[in-house]
Amino acid sequence: MSRRNAREAALLTLFQMDFAADGDMPRDVSELAVDTVGDLKKKDLPYARGLVAGTCAARADIDAAIERSAKEWKLERMAGVDRNLIRMAFYEMYYQEERIDPGTAINEAVELAKKYGSEDAGRYVNGILSAMQKSLS
Fold it and tell me: Of 12, 108, 118, 129, which is least surrounded by CB within 10 A?
């Protein structure tokens, strides 16, 4: 299984969900995400689905944690990719049943930020996630 591919598919789905009407919010990995992530295998889908469902379920708590750590940035003003990467990585670190080491989760989020975000997205995502991690340590 490639968790990186699963994370990428989950990110794309969460990003899509930001633009969906409330009644149209899927809890599964979108077809667009599956088609976009070239190396995504069937065995990667359960992890991606878990990330999407879990991140959505814990979203209110995660968003509150983001707002506490990102004092100079309102959640709705963050770039959608950055916001969803932070949500997903925080979910992996603190909510997921099989928690991911914070260093690994942050590194994976930074790599995806470099691929899908702005030029400074990697540093921004790293900074917010590190601040969130420190606030809980």
Answer: 118
Q: At residue 32, what is the residue type? A: L
Q: Which residues in 76-102 are b (16+ Cβ under 10 Å) and which e?
A: eebbbbbbbbbbbbbbbbbebeeebeb
Instruction: Characterize 17-31 residue by residue with b for buried, 16 or more Cβ atoms within 10 angstroms of its Cβ, and e for exposed.
Output: beeeeeeeeeeebbe
Contact 8, 15 (CB under 8 A): no
Question: What gap in Å lies between CA 80 and CA 50, rounded to an integer?
Answer: 20
CATH classification at residue 67 = 1.10.940.10
Domain hosting 27: range is: 3-136
Closest CA to 62 of 137, 135, 8, 132: 132
Number of domains within the chain: 1
- pLDDT tens for 104-133 read 999 999 999 999 999 999 999 999 999 999
Instruction: Quote the pTM value.
Output: 0.91
Share of the chain above pLDDT 70, in %: 93
